[in-house]
Design a protein that fits this description.
Layout: E1 2-7, E2 20-25, E3 40-44, H1 62-66, H2 69-77, E4 82-86, E5 94-97, E6 101-106, E7 109-112, H3 123-134, E8 138-141, H4 146-155, E9 158-165, E10 169-178, E11 181-184, H5 192-206
Parallel strand pairs: 3-4, 3-10, 7-8
Antiparallel strand pairs: 1-2, 4-5, 6-7, 6-9, 9-10, 10-11
The structure holds pyridoxal-5'-phosphate (PLP).
């Protein structure tokens, strides 16, 4: 379900609109990536930036996606599913993927970027954090750099990477390209934790699993 709002003032110019049209597009969806629930390859852009702190990166607004499309097209041409964005100022802190938030499992700790204003505060991100806490898995929201990721990958302590989003649900990441080098995550296959979260979220959505969080709303 895609809630949408557009300005409908009969006016050309730059100012906040006075009248808006709000509508919701409802439609069936299939697997978000052609890979289905299989590891995707992502590309780190060191040339472009998506959003900067103090801007509108945390809002689900078209401008953020416009700024990301060239990098996304180039990533696709190179055979990657998505772009992994670094922060726009120092270009080293891991932020999020084109349409997903992202989690890294370093040792027994799962880490995701904090909500600094330049990434979307995804509802699935929040669900993953709550689920992991409930399962007793250590989950931390903190800044971490792409160098931390590559160091952990070299040392063998980076076992899983996965994205989270309404459309993608949970999307395991099998490899990352950064500065023309490819880095495999774990054994390149879907990690145990990614699989467990994916299964659990789907079971909750389909009502196979009891919802202890109060996330399910009955409509009608
Ligand atoms: C840029 C971006 N980040 C993260 C997400 C995930 O957000 P959510 O879990 O609310 O779908 C999306 C979803 O479309 C997105 O476009």
């Amino acid at each position: 379900m895609r809630p949408t709002v557009i300005a409908v003032d009969p006016f050309l110019g730059v100012k906040p609109a006075e009248r808006y049209l709000f509508y919701i597009i409802c439609g069936p969806v299939g697997a978000y990536y052609p890979e289905g629930f299989n590891p995707i390859s992502i590309f780190i852009s060191d040339q472009y930036v998506r959003a900067v702190r103090g801007g509108i990166g945390e809002a689900k607004t078209g401008g953020n996606y416009a700024a990301s499309l060239l990098a996304q097209m180039e990533a696709k041409e190179k055979g990657f599913s998505q772009v992994l964005w670094l922060d726009a100022i120092e270009r080293k802190y891991v932020e999020e993927v084109g349409t997903m938030n992202i989690f890294f499992k370093f040792g027994d700790e799962v880490v995701t970027s904090p909500l600094t204003g330049s990434i979307l505060p995804g509802i699935t991100r929040d669900s993953v954090i709550q689920l992991l806490k409930k399962w007793g898995v250590k989950v931390v929201e903190r800044l971490f750099t792409i160098d931390d990721v590559l160091k952990a990958q070299t040392e063998g302590s980076l076992s899983e990477v996965f994205g989270s989003g309404t459309a993608a649900i949970i999307s395991p990441v099998g490899s990352i390209r950064y500065k023309d080098k490819d880095f495999q995550i774990g054994d390149g296959k879907t990690g145990q934790l990614s699989q467990k979260i994916y299964d659990h979220l789907l079971a909750l959505q389909y009502g196979y699993e009891e919802d202890t969080f109060g996330w399910i709303e009955k409509i009608g």
